[in-house]
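Worked example 4.2. Below are the chains of a multi-component assembly; read each line carefully before continuing.
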Amino acid sequence: MAKAYTPGLKVTPRTLHRVRRSLPIHGDVLVNVGDSVEPTQVVARTFTEGDITPINLANLLGVPAAEVPEAMLKQKGSTVTQGELIARTKGIFGMFKKEAVSPASGTIESISGQTGQLILRGAQQPVDVLAFLAGRVVEVLPHEGAIIESEAMFVQGIFGIGGEAFGPIRVACTKPEQRLDANLILPDMKGAVVIGGARMTVEAIRKAKDIGVAAIISGGIDDQDLKDFLGYDLGVAITGSERVGLTFIITEGFGDIAMATRTHQLLCAMEGKAAAVTGATQIRAGVMRPEIVVPLTSSGGPIAHVIDTGGELALGTQVRLIRDPYFGSIGTVARLPHEQAILGSGSKARVLEVRLDSGEIVVVPRANVELIEG
Amino acid sequence: MSDPSAHPPIDLQSIRWILATDCGSTTTKAILIQKIGNEYRQTQRAEAPTTVEAPFADVTVGVVNAITEIAEVAGRRFIDDNGQIIRPATEHEGCDIYISTSSAGGGLQMMVAGVVAQMTAASAKRAALGAGAIVMDTIAANDRRKPHEQIQRIRELRPDMVLISGGTDGGNIQQVVQIAELIAPAKPRPRFGGEYEMPIIFAGNKEAAPQIRAIFRDGFDLSVVDNLRPVLELENLGPARDKIHDVFLEHVMAHAPGYDKLMTWANAPIMPTPGAVGDILQRIAARDRINAVGVDIGGATTDVFSVFGGTFNRTVSANLGMSYSISNVCAEATMPKVLRWVHLDMDERELRNRVKNKMIRPTTIPQTLEALVFEQAVSREALRLAYLQHKEFATVLKGVQQQRTVGDVFSQEGGNRSLVDNMKLDLLVASGGVLSHAPRMEQTAAMLIDAFEPEGFTTLAKDSIFMMPHLGVLASVHPDAAMHVFERDCLIILGTCVGAKGHAKLGKACFSYRITPSTGSTVSGDMMVGDLKLVRLCEGETAQLEITPDRAFDVGGGPGKSVQRTVRGGQVGIVLDARGRPLELPEDRGACRDLMLRWVKALELYS
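Applying the procedure described above to all two chains together yields the following structure tokens:
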């Protein structure tokens, strides 16, 4: 039987899910192996060096750079507060003295007699890493963070905006092909992770933001709506650091496209349960996709192990068609011909035949399908 | 330069089998070159996924896989039972030379700094780009950012190394020291972990070196090299560029997974991929005494290389590409600009969604003709913008010391003088997916002509399997072998474009032509403004071409002056382009579409 490997997004009702939570630079790990942690619990902390404020004292005092050190009232290593007097010139016969005050609070790191420049270092800033997944610490990474494990429902989206968010699942669209309009966003969804169906409209996103919804998940979004909401045209798919008031995730792609039925059913079945989501997306160099994780406390059903590599494309496998003219359609692999075929574009490529839900069989390049993995 | 003892001299006469790999971000490409008779030919190729990231975290795994593939198709063993490359070659196994380039893990990423953005900082940027680096940012005293903004930016970046320039020798030292005083406390952290100290290369005023040493005394690995602008009129990029290569090997490569092993395998220092491409292009231009432009359009970035009058320049347009960056191309160019290259009706809102879907699923390929036409339209804009950036940047001579006057410097500050002159361009080489994998060669030629707008007589070619990186590094060991392969196997000649520079109303006379092929009968005719014509001339054939332009047009001899040349045929032939330069398309969508349809038919693009 012909086989091939192709990437896919995970949609898993129950898996033993592990997350690696680590600091960007070395710091202190605040948990131990075996600890139970909550999603918003800090598991590791470090401090980054404070901001630097350069102060051109030679200019401020109107003296040559070489005279700056002797004009200093505060020396290297001193702590100063904003507005505090830090330097004064001798003046002429004790007259016409010039003074300089510190524009910020911090510690004097250096004073240069070469350039007349003073470098002021602000207070250290804490960097916290949260647990994200409610579960058990299974490994401590010394000075870095921890690995947390829990049985969980796990769904990967294709694209998201915004960082980590937490809240109970609330269903707004009861059918996957239902558009997520503003009238479906209700005031009592504040703090919730809202499940839509097909395209989320910009009005729905704006209303969700106003109400204080934690996150929205739906099948698609129109690029024009995304541009209208963000206020700019997103050029490169590196997201997660936006501060736009909420996180939103699409599971299928851009356009008016319904969420895959299986994904929708799975998310709807989680109504009321606490979810952790992240919209962070990175397509290049270490692919990162948005995630929706719902920890499961009681055991029920078999556990699927999530595999990080692509899956096997075999006859009967469920696939999503990810390029026009069949974009968004879902079907099963009907045939995997070995030989290359000539496409409508004139290019030669390896293809597969997919039986769509309608029963129609279509031929598409292998590069244009994605597994729906369980 | 690197310690030559690490790579003992090779007897070039005895070389028969050469293996070369290029470790890219996603794919490791291997080629086999054999000596057949008295010449070297590329005989086999294979590829395997690059294995820099987990779970392998060892680049040599991918290299061995790619070489094993080659071995299977060549029927010859290259890897022994211990996983080592078999050398020297015997009758039945092994190779004589193994060499490699690398852009895995994002290639070489640098931050550069100088005092004046248009002068020392620009020279530093040229040195970094010429060495094959991606320049993440250029910090200068006059870059219009406040010091705290510059510091914030330095802290955000994670470059592999920093190059600092500034001041002429014996000139002002205060400003360059001030720049150093900003960089040191910002403590930029290296990309690969925190185990080694950030390499800093100082190539500025030599009299500032003691202060620079004091500033970077703790927590940095400082190298001081000759000033890259010792006097205002002189640019000396060689020492800085060599040091960049050394630091790349000693620090960056040594910390990338598996590269310590790969370096011991290779017979020559591993080069950054774009650096190797630049080297081979320079060699070709120097040998044939021609001006050449090379372009490599990828999913995320577009590299443009040029050699004009012996001067090499390279630019990287970081966010102009055909998959990861496709959305950025459309945003920068604007959708109406993209759509002017489309002869079909398309819905803009729908296209916006398609662009984003390509961005988030970058490995998909166009299935329909409509999708292909749209992608090739986007590519024209990506290439056009990348070339525009290149022309704006390629203003100063590089490499060997070359005199320029102070007057030149000031005229360049205005950004008016580019070294790139399309009328003097002899060879335009294309590589990268959208150009290399176009279903028809005519499409590749059309994308090049529309985006680069060559003037006069220009040979168009494409790199068959993106072999230029391999040949670039091979040229450093065995120049003859590299040249043989470049000419016989690397370049696919598409043909010759004849572009008339000038403007007149559509339908007015532009030029007349007379083509006498080496075999076959003469053809002649008149071209009106707006016309495009394809005359087939097979690869290996030449033709005598006489062009007589109208007085409003120039094909290299001056306005209205007739020009005769011998031109090369190719997979496409001769393209006569009477659309004028700069190329202007009608603003009206309907008129533009009709004109585009005419050109599509003339070049037989999609029939």
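Take a moment to check your reading of the output against the notes. The CA atoms of residues 155 and 188 of chain B lie 5 Å apart. Chain B has three domains: 17-95, 106-256, 292-602.
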